[in-house]
Amino acid sequence: MECRVLSIQSHVVRGYVGNKSATFPLQVLGFEVDSINSVQFSNHTGYSRDTSFLEMVVDIIQELKKANPSLVYVCDPVMGDQGAMYVPENLLPIYRDKVVPVADILTPNQFEAELLTGRKINTEDDAFKVMDLLHKMGPETVVLTSTDLPSKHGDQFLVALGSQKIVKPDGTSTSQKICMDIPKVDAVFVGTGDLFAALLLAWTHHHPKDLKAACEKTVSVMHHVIKRTITYANEMAGPGKRPSPAQLELRMVQSKADIENPAIVIEAKVLESSH
Prior knowledge:
This protein is an alpha/beta fold. It has a single domain (4-274), classed as Ribokinase (UDP-N-acetylmuramoyl-L-alanine:D-glutamate ligase), CATH 3.40.1190. It has helices at 19-28, 51-67, 92-102, 110-117, 124-137, 192-206, 211-237, 256-260; strands spanning 4-12, 32-41, 74-75, 80-81, 84-85, 105-106, 141-147, 157-167, 173-183, 268-274. The strands form three sheets. It has a six-stranded mixed beta sheet, with helices on both faces. A two-stranded parallel sheet has the order 1-2. 39% of the residues lie in helices and 23% in strands.
């Protein structure tokens, strides 16, 4: 059966963010993509969204799940980062009480995971407790796309964590937990979160019970796209100059081969499976 994706995100005319960041890689990986553009901008920006839009998304998901119970909904609960919210606070209860319960895959950063559960993350153990709480709220797969946890490889690396709940035929469940150390890049990119969520959707579809493989491919594609982008941006900016936001637009089309068949450059470590 052909796979279709309904992508509800913002749209930009130029560059890669929102639907522009998600559509091309999904198409390259064999998915038909239907887009609903929540807003249209000439370029990327951080405008706030209102509660009625989120509630409408929840209604759409519930209707679609009635028609197709095997539908997979990926939610990136974009609310803030580094301890600060960049959306109105009244969106939090809607994400927590309405959006997360209908999500199958959730991709928060550490701060968003803390907001959704009301629990702080100071250790890896805290992070997995928070992810277990998020599983209980609905999603079977949770990936903390970035955390402030220290990497064993030093401060040039970012720690990402994932947890996938697998329900066995007898009704009991186990979870696969993984950890990844991702090299940090000294530049600000826009649209990477949207690309991450799209790739994770694609690769979890191709590897439904193997979070390790899905995350390795997702993060490796990200690495190739970002590396190609930073190399190009530095060439365009010239020696000693910092690249402009325009020069740092993701080199998406140029990365088509990497999106289709990424060389695995970042490996995920499987931690103990818990019951």
